[in-house]
Design a protein that fits this description.
It is built from one helix and no strands. It has about 100 residues and is mainly alpha-helical. The chain has a domain of about 55 residues. The relative contact order is 0.03.
């Protein structure tokens, strides 16, 4: 069996080990609290987005259902990427190259 001095030293080591573990537990609890707060904040934001998106998607779904039940949609006009305001006289001096090709 150890001497009194050895036992006191071992006790001091165990006390120090317990202090370190308590400090680690405190750090981990703080980190857990921060993560819980972040989760709650993100959950609140998600709820806000869902409250906006659900009515919008329900409205779009109702419009689609109504359209499919017999109402005719108006035809959309085409979009052209060609310029509409150009002067044909500006292009009169341009000659396009000719490349002969075989029938094959």
């Amino acid at each position: 069996m150890g001497t009194l001095r050895d036992l006191q030293y071992a006790l001091q080591e165990k006390i120090e080990e317990l202090r370190q573990r308590d400090a680690l537990i405190d750090e981990l609890e703080l980190e857990l609290d921060q993560k819980d707060e972040l989760i709650q904040k993100l959950q609140n934001e998600l709820d806000k987005y869902r409250s906006v998106i659900r009515p919008a998607t329900q409205q779009a779904h109702q419009q689609t259902t109504t359209t499919l039940q017999g109402e005719h949609r108006t035809k959309r006009q085409a979009i052209s990427a060609e310029p509409t305001a150009f002067d044909i006289q500006d292009l009169s001096h341009v000659t396009l190259p000719f490349y002969p090709k075989s029938p094959q």
